[in-house]
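ugh ok fine here u go
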Amino acid sequence: MPNPIFYKAIDRHCRLYAAAPVFHFIRPQTMTAAPEILYRQAAALLEQSHTAQALPLLQQAAEQGYAEAAFVLGNHLLQNGQPEQALSWLEAAAAQRHPKALFSLLQQREHNGTPTGQLLNEYAWLGEQGHPEAQLILMRYHAQRNDPQSLYWAELAAARYAAPAYYHLARHHQRQSDFATAVEQYEKAAALGVTAACWQLGQIYFYGTGINPDHAQAEQYLEQAAQAGHTAAQTLLADLLAAQRRPEALEWYRRAADKEQAEAQAKLAQYALTGELSERDPFQAARYAKAAAEKNHPEALKIMGDLYRYGLGIKADNHVAHDYYHRAAALGSAAAAQKLVSDAALYHPQQYGQIKTAALQQQQTETAYRLAEAQARAIGRPADYNAARKNYMEAAEFHHKNAAAALGRIYHYGLGTEQDPRAAAHWYAIAAEQNHPSAQYHLACFYYHGQGVSCHVPTACYWLQAAIGNGHTSAGLLTSLLEQWRCEAHHAIGKKAV
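structure:
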């Protein structure tokens, strides 16, 4: 039998429900949805490309203190050319330690001219939170100052599989003559598509730097770098193929030559003149030799001398030939120096002694440099930076720009000696004045950071522009860096004016 108490309870409940006031589900005038719900609604709309409907919801969520909404809104405004409106939202999210918002805010401040050095604490916080891009920025900043902290940030970034970090660690280990670890790190970077790592591995296996030469491995890595457009790799790959008498070497020389690489142009001139890989073509030889000679390539200048001396593809002119030989010899061409000695013996016996002495000095200078390279790069022998430094010094005293740049590198990184920023800046400057692109880049960094020289951003910009103009292998990245430095310089001038 049904329980009467049960029915009474149901009846009471129904009467209370019927008497209760009715509320609508949404009443915007008096109720606001939770910020997380607003954000999810906005995110769904953004996925469907309904941006106009999403933005008001994002703003409502951001106004209620929802950090992710403030970041997404700020980032959207930034990407759509509204930086002033974006900054307030990014700042709101960054104040809550939203990592992505803080990073975007820092990047925008750098774009507006704030130097990286003034933002290090914020970047360091992000780096410790595991933000890989912040870790890489810190790595590069400290690397430019040759600060060991760069290795700390590189290790953290490498743990998150950041390719540039592998490359940085590889360069460090190579400088420390730990070639096995260097190769391991280069290979990790190469596997992630770092062209420069392929280039370094190609050189290591080609020359046998700290390991046994392996031309099959060298070809593999050089071809990867060459296919990616690395001009120096294209030329070295061509050298490897040419040594095997493989005609495809010419195509790689041409690719590099088309990008105005002087070494490739000189090699094409040489092979067109000798006919070793194709039919002899003195006119092609003259065209390529002239292009490289205009860049003061010593062997191209020597070839131009030969062309004028023997009238190959060009009207013979001994006076012009002699001028080319002189220019080539002054830049280290031993073959050109020998030509001058031979000519002096035949036609200018009164000058023979002087010319012979100069030629012998040039040969000695080049020999000292090549020996230093083998000692420093561990080619066919263990690395010996002390011996290398002495031989580099001997060559640099006779205006060998590559030797001067190498000395800058030795004192910069403290290879076999104490680090000496002033000495490094001195030798980099000597090489930079002779249009050595790597030395110009390093000298630019020294002026930017006030390392070994007084800090002067306009001078830093000057040398960075010179490095780009002289064909630095990372010209694309340097162009972006130059823009940043110029922005900082402009910002600093503006602050002084105020």
